């Protein structure tokens, strides 16, 4: 029990002086006296091991010695008696000494015994008492507490059984049968949603689901058993279906058809969404996309009994991209300004709103613009054009342009005369002691090269005139 039995001290202080009568204990009652079967069936049969059990404590305020010595113990002789109803009406068990601490702590008092026979009856109720007094004079006692219990003749416990279909149609009646249960059954209780009684019952289910069916049977002794099974009630399944194109261009109309969807009692609600945004209701709807990409079309349907289902499909929405084209000359002179023209470019689905040029790392903008290469930019150069539409779609193209070098103007030299640096100057005017008429001193001689240079000069003069 919850309270431990107090231990008797090795040398208790004259316990015979403190053998109390019944006054102190009687002031502590009522005690709860219980009869505890060995098993948990709740039914006591002849020969079953039982225990009388209770917890008791003295009231130290009523005992002078306890008030003076709270660490002392007081002894009581306690025994159980059972009314058997026979010739010896009360069957008394041997007294047991119990030492109760003056501190007021409780002590467990118990007695083990076997349930008596029923005496030929199907059941028998017996009284049991907890007594204290003089162990040598059993007639001098007081009843501390009492209880009663019933002994039943031993019979087989009931076994419950259910016969029922595993699945039914919503709204149809079904028979639930417990007649195959065994035992001396007096009552059949159907529990759960049924709350009915009887060996057989009928029931119908108004909505879809899996239901647990249970029947509890009870025999005349109060022994019970429960059987369980499940019954699944089903509607016609609901199914959403979508009929639609899988690809379309921006600006075109997409037709969405959900008329193939089905459910119990018909489909009552259609809800269409594109990437989670509702676009319409009804078995058939249409939609126009204003941008490209991959989109998820979803249809949610609800039938007449509230069942729902969803179906989804993907549609690819495409756009025509802009095409970059440029018009520039294939060859220009260094330093000469020329036009960059992007007007041949064509738009796609969206308008072109940006033209970007890249020439030798320099960025220019505009559908048409102009540019000139520096005089030292002789050679081949790349002109690149990028066109971008209003949605950010772009295209790039490029062409090569040949930059011609700047040609010298010989007329200016003739008009300006001798600049003092030409190789055809006569004589040595450098002060270096060499004849300047030798324009090629590397040839190792002092031959006058001026005649050759003069012919070259005359030829250039003639050509540019």
From TrEMBL:
Region called Disordered, residue ranges: 1-22, 362-381, 387-452
Segments of skewed composition (Basic and acidic residues): 1-11
Gene3D superfamilies noted in UniProt: Immunoglobulins (2.60.40.10)
Domain (PKD): residue spans on this chain: 157-238, 237-319
SUPFAM superfamilies assigned: PKD domain
A Pfam short name: PKD_4
Coiled-coil blocks: none
Source superkingdom: Archaea
CDD domains per record: PKD
Biased amino acid composition, Acidic residues: 397-451
Compositionally biased region (Polar residues): 387-396
InterPro entries according to UniProt: Ig-like_fold, PKD/Chitinase_dom, PKD_dom, PKD_dom_sf
Protein name: PKD domain-containing protein
Taxonomic classification: Archaea, Methanobacteriati, Methanobacteriota, Stenosarchaea group, Halobacteria
């Amino acid at each position: 029990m919850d309270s431990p039995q107090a231990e008797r001290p090795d040398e208790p202080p004259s316990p015979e002086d403190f053998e109390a009568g019944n006054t102190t204990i009687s002031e502590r009652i009522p005690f709860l006296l219980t009869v505890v079967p060995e098993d948990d069936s709740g039914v006591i049969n002849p020969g079953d091991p039982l225990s009388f059990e209770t917890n008791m404590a003295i009231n130290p305020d009523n005992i002078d010695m306890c008030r003076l010595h709270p660490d002392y113990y007081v002894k009581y002789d306690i025994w159980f008696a059972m009314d058997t109803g026979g010739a010896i009406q009360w069957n008394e068990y041997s007294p047991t000494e119990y030492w109760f601490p003056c501190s007021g702590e409780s002590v467990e008092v118990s007695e083990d015994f076997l349930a008596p026979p029923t005496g030929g009856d199907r059941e028998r109720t017996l009284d049991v008492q907890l007594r204290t007094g003089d162990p040598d004079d059993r007639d001098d006692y007081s009843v501390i507490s009492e209880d009663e219990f019933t002994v039943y003749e031993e019979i087989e416990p009931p076994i419950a059984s259910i016969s029922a279909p595993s699945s039914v149609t919503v709204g149809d009646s079904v028979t639930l049968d417990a007649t195959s249960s065994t035992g001396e059954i007096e009552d059949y209780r159907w529990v759960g949603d049924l709350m009915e009684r009887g060996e057989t019952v009928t029931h119908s289910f108004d909505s879809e689901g899996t239901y647990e069916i249970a029947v509890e049977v009870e025999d005349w002794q109060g022994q019970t058993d429960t059987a369980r099974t499940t019954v699944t009630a089903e509607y016609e399944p609901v199914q959403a279906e979508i009929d639609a194109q899988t690809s379309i261009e921006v600006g075109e109309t997409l037709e969405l058809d959900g008329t193939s969807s089905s459910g119990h009692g018909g489909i009552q609600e259609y809800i269409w969404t594109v990437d989670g945004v509702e676009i319409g209701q009804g078995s058939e709807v249409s939609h126009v996309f204003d941008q490209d990409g991959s989109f998820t079309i979803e249809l949610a349907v609800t039938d007449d009994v509230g069942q729902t289902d969803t179906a989804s499909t993907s549609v690819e929405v495409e756009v025509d991209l802009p095409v970059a084209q440029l018009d520039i000359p294939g060859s220009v002179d260094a330093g000469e300004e020329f036009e960059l023209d992007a007007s041949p470019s064509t738009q796609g689905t969206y308008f072109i709103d940006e033209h970007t040029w890249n020439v030798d790392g320099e960025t220019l903008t505009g559908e048409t613009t102009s540019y000139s290469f520096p005089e030292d930019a002789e050679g081949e150069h790349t002109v690149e054009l990028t066109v971008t539409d209003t949605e950010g779609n772009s295209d790039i193209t490029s062409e090569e342009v040949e930059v011609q070098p700047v040609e010298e103007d010989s007329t200016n030299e003739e008009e300006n005369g001798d600049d003092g640096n030409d190789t055809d100057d006569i004589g040595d005017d450098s002060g270096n002691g060499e004849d300047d008429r030798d324009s090629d001193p590397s040839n190792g001689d002092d031959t006058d090269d001026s005649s050759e240079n003069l012919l070259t000069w005359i030829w250039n003069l003639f050509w540019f005139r």
